[in-house]
Write a sequence for this structure.
């Protein structure tokens, strides 16, 4: 059973700036991620979505501004997990990838076998537990990456375009898994380029452009009736420059 009581929420970013050399990647971001339905970050390429995920995860320290997790600026990262767009698999079996993840998470050896079975069932990989991970399809790799992240029993799960380049069937499987994880009490914050996916999964949507928040709010409202001209153009498929 996932434990989500650790004080990781809300995640609050206050006037957060992140730069690479002279390039501003995040430019005065102020956001709050609360418990509840998934928060989905959208925006054109280069808008800062992935950097925002990594900063909210705690992997990037802001150049300016403040970020806190459950009211603390130094909360343990152990209850947060991030799945990258192209996760790297260990050259071991599916089950052994999970066994390693559980060991890193500090799960007692005696509990690992049962927990591996639980995670495999959750992501639908039980039948291929002994298959070498490098031989998995793109959708299977992404499900394994999610299972490895969930091995940490996170309170918050960050997903960077989890369905990018997947076929419709694999996308549907990942989306269903995201729904199930969110329904279990884990806060999901994810990026996507697919507005349909945002509509299907999000409770809240945040639109980024040039490292700034253009608009944020309930998914149905923002996607259906955007308030800003930039958001209206983006929803219409017009390039934001």
């Amino acid at each position: 059973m996932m434990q989500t009581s650790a004080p990781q929420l809300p995640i609050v970013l206050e006037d957060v700036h992140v730069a690479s050399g002279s390039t501003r990647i995040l430019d005065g971001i102020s956001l709050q991620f609360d418990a509840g339905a998934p928060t989905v970050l959208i925006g054109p390429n280069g808008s800062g979505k992935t950097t925002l995920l990594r900063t909210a995860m705690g992997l990037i320290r802001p150049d300016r501004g403040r970020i806190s997790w459950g009211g603390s600026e130094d909360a343990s990262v152990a209850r947060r997990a991030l799945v990258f767009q192209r996760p790297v698999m260990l050259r071991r079996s599916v089950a052994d990838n999970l066994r390693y993840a559980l060991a890193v998470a500090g799960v007692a050896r005696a509990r690992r076998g049962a927990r591996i079975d639980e995670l495999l069932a959750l992501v639908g990989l039980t039948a291929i537990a002994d298959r070498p991970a490098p031989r998995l399809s793109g959708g299977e790799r992404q499900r394994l990456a999610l299972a490895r992240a969930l091995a940490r029993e996170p309170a918050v799960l960050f997903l960077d375009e989890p369905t990018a380049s997947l076929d419709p069937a694999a996308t549907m499987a990942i989306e269903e898994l995201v729904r199930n994880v969110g329904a279990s009490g884990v806060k999901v914050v994810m990026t996507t380029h697919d507005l349909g996916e945002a509509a299907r999964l999000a409770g809240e949507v945040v639109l980024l452009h040039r490292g700034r928040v253009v608009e944020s709010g309930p998914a149905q409202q923002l996607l259906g009736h955007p308030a800003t001209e930039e958001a209206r153009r983006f929803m219409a498929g017009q390039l934001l420059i």
Notes: The two ends are 45 Å apart (CA to CA). The first strand starts at residue 11 and ends at 20.
